[in-house]
Amino acid sequence: MAQSSKRPELLAPAGNLEKLKWAVQYGADAVYFGSEYSLRNFAGNFSLAQAEQGIKYLHRFGRKAYITLNIFPFSDEYDKILSLARNFDEMNADAIIVADLGVLMMLKREGIRAAVHISTQANTLSSQTALEYAELGASRVNLARELSLQQIKAILPAVSGKIQTEVFIHGAVCFSYSGRCAISDYLTGRRANRGECTHPCRWKYHLMEEERPGEYHPVFEDDRGLYFFNSKDLALFEYVPALAEIGVDSMKIEGRMKSVHYIGSVVSLYRRIIDGDEISSEEAFKLLGRVKNRGYSRGFIDGPAESKDCQLEDNHSTGGTVFAANVTDQTSDNGCFIRVRNKIFAGEKLEVLLPNGRLSEATLPKPLTDQKGETHEFANNEQIIRLTSPLPEFSILRRVSE
């Protein structure tokens, strides 16, 4: 993959303060996160105190903080949203992400200094819409995931210099139009467009025409059913140079509910690609296969989605590794300390992912020695173990099962 002429921003997710720090250390230029009134109510999210810590941490490393207030609010919620926006503005957040036109206009009218970015939930499919958002005071728009590369390419010349553009390049996607869905509301009472989605699109269904009871849709080969709406995860690493070349300003990764292992693995790969490293598609898929996924798809980037873009056989996420441990910030003479995430064994060999995205190997000591100097043949979750070889803080140790 050749280096492109423009270096876009790499925008990473964070569901809590720990994940924010990992995103920074693995190469994100900016991080988006939320508290209340965010479309990820189950992501952990930030208290105001944690948000302030996160913003300071990002700015200390020269990175940007984008706050999600992209829920579709009811009339009595605008005052609370404005109060939150003022808090984030006082913390010097770089931008606030919104989907609702009323929220956008309120923030501009009330003089919020932070830039306003338009969420993917707003379904922006055209330069006309993007330019109208610019007229209303938005500084960036996330283009809808349903656009192809050619459609994005057609939009860019008209909006260049007037409003920035952002494109999702990786992560779980919704089968519904830019994530605007009512199935969860209908089946479970949990409202997808209020951040409460239970992902019923991942469930198993039988499709039946109303006038033909008992006659199933012909896609079924047997009575097991089919995960007809279960979209594969998006992976557009092959298109990063092309998107940069046509002028996309920011490349966005989905995953505020994902683990630090996911954040480190995915962010570091895209960091390397944006920086011009030559990584084959085979190698990229291998690295992405290290974290849980539903299989990978190019989505709409090269045309309409097809059946191959759904994982039809089951709805499980699978990955090729177990996140075993990570290097802590504790210092050790001629070595380091690791925090155990899943059970490890004395003498076993583990793959190491460094924060720069490079791979290495480490063989655990035999026996394992903890902080108190006590020895063990194995160690369990949350134990702190000393390694005799030095590794950078935030390095990931994982057990590979090819």
UniProtKB/TrEMBL annotation:
<dbReference type="InterPro" id="IPR001539">
    <property type="entry name" value="Peptidase_U32"/>
</dbReference>
<keyword id="KW-0645">Protease</keyword>
<comment type="similarity">
    <text>Belongs to the peptidase U32 family.</text>
</comment>
<protein>
    <submittedName>
        <fullName>Putative protease YhbU</fullName>
        <ecNumber>3.4.-.-</ecNumber>
    </submittedName>
</protein>
<feature type="domain" description="Peptidase family U32 C-terminal">
    <location>
        <begin position="323"/>
        <end position="398"/>
    </location>
</feature>
<dbReference type="GO" id="GO:0006508">
    <property type="term" value="P:proteolysis"/>
</dbReference>
<dbReference type="InterPro" id="IPR032525">
    <property type="entry name" value="Peptidase_U32_C"/>
</dbReference>
<dbReference type="GO" id="GO:0008233">
    <property type="term" value="F:peptidase activity"/>
</dbReference>
<dbReference type="Pfam" id="PF01136">
    <property type="entry name" value="Peptidase_U32"/>
</dbReference>
<keyword id="KW-0378">Hydrolase</keyword>
<dbReference type="Pfam" id="PF16325">
    <property type="entry name" value="Peptidase_U32_C"/>
</dbReference>
<dbReference type="InterPro" id="IPR051454">
    <property type="entry name" value="RNA/ubiquinone_mod_enzymes"/>
</dbReference>
